[in-house]
Amino acid sequence: MSTMIRPIQPSDNEPLATLIRQVFREFKIDKPGTVYTDPTTDSLYELFQQPGSAYFVAEENSTIIGGCGVYPTDGLPEGCAELVKFYLAAEARGKGIGHQLMQQSIAAARELGYSQLYLESFPELAKAVSMYEKAGFRPIPHALGNSGHYACNIWMLKDL
Asked: I need a surface site. Which of 24, 91, 114, 142 has the fewest CB within 10 A?
């Protein structure tokens, strides 16, 4: 089985929204103030047409098994983008696919001219948080920018 990582396409919207909500239910974080209830979750292709953004999907046998991107979230410091919408299907974890997606997004952030990447997460996603730490993200004491995801309580920053 080969995994392909490619830029998002319009036809990815529905399978991606389904995957993201599935992950939120799996970790019992399907609550207000998260991507679960965010209306943009259903139209990610359109969201990532915003200048300064990029989104990549991982596909295996024509099935979307993950995604990750960078976005110029309102209110972030100059030169900083947010690592966003990073999700993997349960069966895709532990195979290095998430690492590839994240590295692709970090490379895109550099190409777009960013000097820092910010992210928000949850303690329930401990495996992801340890992957962020290995990739050079460090915890910070408070949220940056205006993502609207007030339920998140882990904030991290990486210099590019």
From this structure: 142
